[in-house]
Amino acid sequence: MEPASSLQPRIAVFALALGVVISGNARAESSGSQVSQESLVPVAISVALPVALVAGVGSIVVTGVQASADGTVWLVENAADGVKGSIRFAGDAVGASAIAAGTVVVVTVVATGMLLSAAGHVIAFIPNEVGRSLSYNQRVSR
Amino acid sequence: MSGASALLRLLAGALALVAAATACAGQPCDTTPPDTYAMTRALGLAERVQRSLDASGAQVVIVARAGQDLSKYGLQWSHLAFAYRDDGTIPGSPIPATATVAGSTVLGQISGQAIPVPLPRRGTWRIVHKLNQCGTADAAVFRQGLAEFFLDTPFRYEAAYVVPDPEMQAALLRVVTDDQRLVQWHTAPYSVVAYPWSTRYQQSNQWALETLAGSLDPAASTRERAQAWLQLHDYQPTVLHLDAFTRLGARMTRANVAFDDHPNSKRFSDHIETVTVESMFAWMQRLRIAGQPTVVR
Which tens digit of pLDDT belongs to each residue from B27-77? Predict the structure, then answer.
C-alpha cells in the first residue's frame, strides 16, 4: 500500500555504493537499476585517515578531489590540527566527484559508521561493520 | 451544486486522497540529499530492528514501517515486507559467506598499520518487498538492507514485526531466497488501493499477502489461486471509505491510483477494500500462524 516510491534516489545511491563494497554481484544488479544511477550519497569503500581524525567528531576540509576510472579520492584535512588523510569512493558512486575543494565537511559518528555532511545534508557515508550489514540493494523483478 | 463549488469540492477531494495515497506510499522521488538528522534516525532504527530481530531467534519475519500518517483511516502502519536472516548458506543467497571487500581494505592507519575493513557478519538481515517507483503506474520487487527500508523519511521512526510459526518460516524462507519464486505472484501494474480479489493491479502489501499464500500452499501457484486460497482461509481486507469526489480527484492526479478493479457495487457505495498491514497481522493472529506484533522504536 505504498504508492509513491519508497525507493528514493538517496536510498538507492546509498545502496549502490555499498553494494560495491560487499558484493560484485550486488554492484552489477544495482547498476542496472535506473534509480541507482540517480543516487546522491556516495559510500566510502576505504578510508586512510589518522585514527585521531577517524575517531574524532568535528569537521574536515576537502582539500582536493582526484577522479579516475577506479573511483574518486577525496584528500581531506582535519580542520582543527591540519592532519591529512583520504577517503576513496567507487568509480560509480555518483556524487563523490561533485564535491569542490575547500568544502567543509561535518563528521558525525553514529552507531553504524560516520556521516559526512555539508550544509546539513549527508554527502557521504563511511559504514562500519554494522552499517555495512544493514545495506543492500538488488532489483529482483525486471 | 454550482459549477464552482463542485470544482472546489473535487479539488479538495483530490488533495485529500493524494495526501492519503502519498501516505501509504512513502515519498515521491526527489533529488535532495537526505538531511543528517533524518539519516541518523533511519540508520539508528535499522540498527535497533536488526538487534531485535537477532534476539527474536527467528529466521523469517514480516516487518512493517510507518511510511506516512494513515491515522485518519485507523491505520498505524503503511507498508510491509518479508525480512529474513541470510547466513550465507541459503541457496540463492545474495551475499556469499566468503564475500570479499572490493578495493582497498584499509579503514584507518595507526602508525603505519592498516586496519582491515571488517566483512559483513554472518546472519545479515535482508528485506524483500515490492516498491512503486516515484509515483508511476508500475512497481517492482526488490531485495534490500534494513537501512534502505527505513531511509525513506518515514512518518514515524518505528517498526513492527510478527514472527510466523516455524513451519511458515520454513516455507517462506524457500521463497524469499529464490528470485524466481519472488516474482511468481508479482504483477507490475500498480494501484495503491488495488482490490484484493482482482489481478488487474497489485499494491505492495497485496504482493506480500499473495506470496505468503503461495508459499504455504503449492496449489496457490498463481495470483488467482493465491487469492482463492486467501478467501478460503477467511482473509478480511480493510475497508476504506472514499467518496466519489475523492476517488475522481485521485485518479486524475496520480498515476498510481486506480479504482476500476473494484466492483461497481462496492466502488459506488464508497466502499474501497484493500490489503493493509493491520488486516494482515490480524488475519495471521486469527489463524494462529504468527504471534503478536513486536514494536521497535
Answer: 456 667 788 898 999 999 999 999 999 999 999 999 999 988 899 889 999
Q: Does B239 touch chain A (CB under 8 A)?
A: no
- Rounded to the nearest angstrom, the minimum Cα separation between A17 and chain B is 11
What is the ipTM metric for this complex? 0.79
Best residue in B105, B131, B150, B254 to probe A by mutation, most A CBs within 10 Å? B131
Residue (of B54, B252, B13, B31) closest to B146 by Cα position:
B54
A10 Cβ under 8 Å from any chain B Cβ: yes
Provide long-range contacts, Cβ within 8 A and 24+ apart, for B110-115: B110/A50, B110/A51
Q: Provide the whole-model pTM.
A: 0.78
A140 vs chain B: nearest CA distance in angstroms? Answer: 5
**A135 CB within 8 Å of a chain B CB:** yes
Residue B265, judged by CB atoms within 10 A of its CB (0-12, 13-18, 19+), counts as exposed
* B192 part of contact set with chain A, CB < 8 Å: yes
Hunting for cell 479504482 — which residue is that? B259
**How is residue B89 annotated by DSSP?**
-
The Cβ of residue B3 has, within 10 Å, a number of other Cβ atoms equal to 7
Distance CA B250, CA B87 (A): 43
